[in-house]
Design a protein that fits this description.
Jelly Rolls; 190 residues; 2 domains; four-stranded antiparallel beta sheet; 9 helices; homodimer; globular; alpha+beta; 22% strand
Amino acid sequence: MYSNFISHIRKYVDLDDNSVALLFKYITPLKLKRKEFLLKEGQICQSIYFVEKGCLRMYFIDDKLNEQITQFALEHWWMADHFSFMDNKPSPYFIETIEKSEILAFTASSFEAMLRELPQMERYFRIVMQRAVAASQLRNKYTYEMSKEEFYQHFSTSFPEFVQRVPQYMIASYLGLTPQYVSELRKKKL
Amino acid sequence: MYSNFISHIRKYVDLDDNSVALLFKYITPLKLKRKEFLLKEGQICQSIYFVEKGCLRMYFIDDKLNEQITQFALEHWWMADHFSFMDNKPSPYFIETIEKSEILAFTASSFEAMLRELPQMERYFRIVMQRAVAASQLRNKYTYEMSKEEFYQHFSTSFPEFVQRVPQYMIASYLGLTPQYVSELRKKKL
């Protein structure tokens, strides 16, 4: 059960079967269809979400009323508006499934209780968060040094699964490109 | 001793005086002049650095041989190339003091040993890293929705201390603006 989640934890910390059983007490499993929402603008991000199976996107509505995508999450990835989750503040974001998905949620209170009972999970989340900081440093560097075309080429080479699974207009939104331009870049590549 | 560091830890976790004494065993304190380097391109980022006093910048050399600043750190902030630090890989970055600074360093091995001896520090770093992820989500959102002028105005309102302490051309580099443009924006504001 939840094999992607357990194998992801065991990549970083020891977790015996007894601890796995304890961990399961704190998880809220969610089976969602395509286009279901975990968070809407103005709500508090009540949980952090692990993608056991499926795909999520995070976006906000910009002042021209466009959906601006800021993050995706496939299997093994975490998703949350962390300031909203930690500080209990309304979020500017939407989090929505792109595919039928199996999501594991920790509410703020179950997250705290779980960390108190299983201190090795503090280590797991410290490592996961530190790697997320590292990834954002790298992404930030790319935005300084790459043209939008280079960014697309890099993105589609580094994450071929995304390009297969995620609609082209969503990748365009994430990269700050028009769908037409992404379509041209894709043809160029083929 | 190291009062900024200890008060920052105690903001998030309990740390009694005995634990503080244990913690000090793992710290390498560094007193640096202005324009000294903690990391240069091609080196491995050997430590993570806490700014007890002073100011750091992180930058890389772009393909036009310009210094492109990606991060600053004032008092209470952590600085590292996290992928380089965690995965022992050469860094593309430089980390340099902007002012005379007092820096507390944890090498990779002292960091690990400290976390094993003081598990509450896993919790501290999990919270610090999670807040860093949250801050990068926010910064990322701004780059999608703000013009460069709005970004500067927001930056100088949110971080007035930076604008006082950091040379104008460095703020321009960080924001992806020309120094001339930042100078115009500053005059406009006055």
